[in-house]
Design goal:
By secondary structure, the protein is of the alpha+beta class. It is built from three helices and three strands, in the order E-H-H-E-E-H. It has helices at residues 21-26, 30-50, 71-74; strands at residues 13-17, 53-58, 61-66. The chain is elongated, with a radius of gyration of 15 Å.
Length: 75
């Protein structure tokens, strides 16, 4: 494990869950889940190009992290 001093900066963090994922999977609608993931990732990528944000996802949760806590990064 490596420590980076840059990671201790104050920054914006957003947390989003794709609602209804469990119900769609239970109904055999896996394709709709994957389409929702694809749309979310495309939108995040589009915004990554405009601002200094990074994102990651696991399960049905998306985390979006800004480079700092400034107003422009927030918008």
């Amino acid at each position: 494990m490596q420590y980076s001093p840059a990671n201790s900066a104050t920054r914006w963090l957003a947390h989003f869950d794709l609602l209804g994922t469990r119900a769609l999977l239970a109904e055999g609608k896996e394709r709709q889940v994957f389409l929702a993931y694809e749309r979310a990732l495309k939108e995040l990528k589009r915004n990554d190009d405009r601002a200094a944000i990074r994102h990651t996802w696991f399960s049905d949760t998306f985390l979006i992290v800004g480079a700092d806590d400034s107003g422009p990064t927030f918008t």
